[in-house]
């Protein structure tokens, strides 16, 4: 069902998370980094918890991250996921933040490169998402290369034309005598 390569966890662990918004606070969250996404979960609570991972909160597409930055503050350092006009997300940790930064930077660049490669065809022309036009253009170009004598759609045999016209004749509606009679007390539906 899932491709192993896309759901394989590259790094996971607890990080402090803050959005670049007014009144936003630092919250401890459990993160899982895969090759194209950064998954965010609540930190599990309770004495019977199996792991640090709790309820799913959000999934960040790494291809949407414009830049992964390192920011030094007076009392801590943070990794910044910059989304341009859509804001920023700050991540910090007491241990292993440099490793998170390196993995996030590598995965973001690789994800963008994969996206770029998918948008370009084998001949180097960019393809738009959900656009049928390039394949239609290819089909029309290939169709023009076929000699006109070999195109089966250009000519229809007379036998097929006769069959089709007889089909249409059978399908034609011919009014019967009582089809359009006005309703009377005998032929209308009663509500009683």
From TrEMBL:
Alphabetical GO biological process terms: actin cytoskeleton organization
PH domain: residues covered: 8-109
Gene Ontology CC, one term: plasma membrane
SUPFAM superfamilies: PH domain-like
Any one Pfam family match given in the protein's UniProt record, by short name: PH
UniProt-listed InterPro entries: PH-like_dom_sf, PH_domain, Pleckstrin
Annotated segments matching region Disordered: 118-139
PANTHER family registered for this protein in UniProt: PH DOMAIN-CONTAINING PROTEIN (PTHR12092:SF16), PLECKSTRIN (PTHR12092)
Protein known as: PH domain-containing protein
């Amino acid at each position: 069902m899932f491709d192993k390569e896309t759901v394989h966890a590259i790094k996971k662990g607890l990080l402090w998370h803050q959005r670049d918004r007014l009144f936003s606070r630092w919250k401890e969250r459990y993160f899982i980094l895969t090759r194209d996404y950064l998954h965010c979960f609540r930190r599990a609570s309770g004495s019977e918890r199996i792991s640090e991972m709790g309820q799913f909160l959000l999934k960040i597409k790494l291809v949407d991250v414009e830049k992964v930055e390192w920011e030094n503050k007076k009392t801590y350092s943070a990794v910044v996921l910059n989304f341009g006009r859509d804001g920023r997300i700050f991540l910090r940790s007491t241990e292993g933040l440099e490793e998170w930064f390196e993995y996030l930077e590598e995965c973001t660049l690789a994800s963008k490169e994969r996206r770029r490669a998918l948008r370009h065809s084998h001949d180097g022309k960019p393809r738009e998402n959900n656009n049928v036009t390039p394949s239609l253009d290819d089909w029309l170009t290939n169709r023009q290369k076929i000699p006109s004598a070999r195109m089966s759609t250009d000519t229809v045999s007379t036998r097929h034309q006769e069959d089709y016209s007889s089909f249409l004749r059978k399908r034609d509606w011919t009014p019967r005598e009582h089809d359009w009679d006005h309703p009377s007390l005998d032929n209308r539906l009663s509500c009683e």
